[in-house]
Design goal:
Blueprint (H helix, E strand, L loop, with lengths): L3 H4 L3 H23 L6 E5 L5 H10 L3 E6 L2 H8 L7 E5 L12 E7 L8 H11 E12 L9 H9 L15 H10 L3 E14 L2 H9 L3 H9 L2 H14 L8 E13 L5
Parallel strand pairs: 1-2, 1-4, 2-3, 4-5
Antiparallel strand pairs: 5-7, 6-7
Length: 265
């Protein structure tokens, strides 16, 4: 089973790999969520703090607590500018170390499919949010080719290599997310698909970003032989559409969902 603690231990590598995507999708998600200002937030699986930084900058929170299982990611997150107000802690999404109804909003950004027991994580999110508060998440649409690494997955398949998706990739589907939110007893559930377009300066920019030894795909690529890595690189170059200036532009999609803890619960 994929261990996200090891996959995402290097905060700087993760920033190079996913930062440009994370900031854009995080900003769009927060605009859609439209949470009230002066709220107490819990950011679960904060990683290297890319989403946390957007949250602080855009949402005028009263307080932000951010947790992650990786010491390396937390160290990078703490060093980001503009997060001085955030309390970063090492913790498990499936067993949150907080009393019930401690927060106004709990969010999980691009994490749920990596959690061993997603249903338990959603139940825990609901538990620590006050009645009337918001429980929300978003995840790349892994099953339907919406992830930033989808071009790499397509190239791997064409070479007979099984793409290394996280163990609970099905939780990236909008219908599965809704089922999890309903099962946790959340109400006023709303869903949204968020589309993000990113341009890489060149194929080299794309390859370097995706072959760093971080995340499921980068870890697999880093473990390949030189010959296998070169074959994958060549197949990617063949399959990716390149603009006249050498740039590569493509779109990824994330499925988002939000619900409220029932009043009186």
């Amino acid at each position: 089973m994929i261990d996200p603690t090891n996959l995402f231990a290097n905060g700087a590598a993760y920033e190079r790999h996913m930062g440009r995507w994370s900031r854009l999708v995080g900003a769009d998600f927060l605009r859609w969520l439209d949470a009230p200002s002066a709220a107490r937030w819990l950011d679960i699986g904060c990683g290297n703090g890319a989403f946390t930084e957007e949250l602080v900058a855009r949402c005028a929170p009263a307080a932000v607590t951010a947790i992650d299982p990786s010491d390396g990611q937390l160290a990078f997150a703490r060093a980001r500018p503009g997060v001085e107000m955030v309390e970063f802690s090492k913790a498990d999404a499936q067993e949150l170390p907080y009393t019930s109804a401690s927060f106004d909003v709990a969010v999980m950004a691009l994490v749920l499919s990596f959690v061993p027991d997603p249903a338990q994580a959603v139940v825990e999110m609901r538990r620590v949010v006050r009645p009337g508060g918001i429980v929300a998440t978003y995840m790349w649409d892994l099953i339907n080719g919406g992830a930033p690494a989808s071009p790499v997955a397509d190239a791997m398949r064409s070479l007979g290599i099984e793409p290394p998706f996280p163990p609970n990739a099905e939780t990236s589907r909008s219908d599965v997310l809704r089922e999890l939110w309903q099962a946790a007893g959340l109400e006023s559930i709303e869903a949204q698909t968020i589309a993000i377009t990113v341009t890489f300066e060149s194929f080299e920019d794309f390859w370097e970003s995706n072959s760093l030894p971080v995340g499921p795909f980068g870890t697999v690529i880093a473990a390949m032989s030189a010959d296998a890595s070169n074959r994958l690189r060549s197949r990617l170059r063949e399959q990716l559409a390149t603009a006249g200036d050498g740039g590569i532009t493509f779109q990824s999609r994330a499925n988002a969902i939000a619900g409220r803890v029932p009043i009186g619960s």
